[in-house]
Predict the 3D structure of the following.
Amino acid sequence: MNHPPADTPFDSVAVLPVAFTESSWHGWRCLDFLHHGRAAKLVLPRRAAPGRPWAWRAEFFDHEPQADLSLLDHGFHVAFCDVFGLMGAPAAMAIWEGFYRLLVEAGLDRRAAMIGISRGGLYCYNWAVRHPEAVSCIYGDAPVCDMRSWPGARGKSVAEGSAEDWRAVLGHYGFADDQEAIAWKGNPVDSLAPLAAAGIPLLHVVGDADTAVPVSENTAIVEARYRALGGRIVVIHKPGVGHHPHSLPDPKPIVDFILEATSKRPGRGFPA
């Protein structure tokens, strides 16, 4: 089921120490609030699983939500803090650090299952590199792993890049020009060693016909490099599928991966 019985009480977080309003998200109780002026949400399960695990949706909340809804069925909270437009840059990570501390102080697990759809992959990987101890796993769905590929359009995605988003990359990362951004070695494809050392499992779901975020320039590089580092990565390929639709019609393989990873990575996260 994807929604709780109407007469069933919720087992929510202990305390959410900010002002919030309540709404319904697909029948689930949702707490809506602002964090540093950014819209934020925390969706509550009917009854929290032991340890109060949670999934952190990096971007595009409510887009293809079948995995999120199934995780709620399994007792996960689902969290979101809108940092759209910041392209995973340090400014976004600074906002996220406060958001993370808020949720941990409210009683959630100190490790989150990261969900990165498309450009959301930048946020998840950049967060995990900074705080591997705060991540149980990463599920990337057609994830951007190299900004030169998208939005930079410096490879096969030349016809589907985004000049506006590339300008945002230059501005938010502080690059002086295109050449500096292209030469930079801080993309997710370049920053996998801390994740492998921490034993963070990765799952990517990709469309093999994706021309916006080509598999060969993003997931295939992560897969090869992560395995060479001794890390565990699972890649689910969707033959003939492009960048859309995201997720899977039946999210069970995604949910099973997150459940397994979460059960194997209890921990303390970084200090609140």
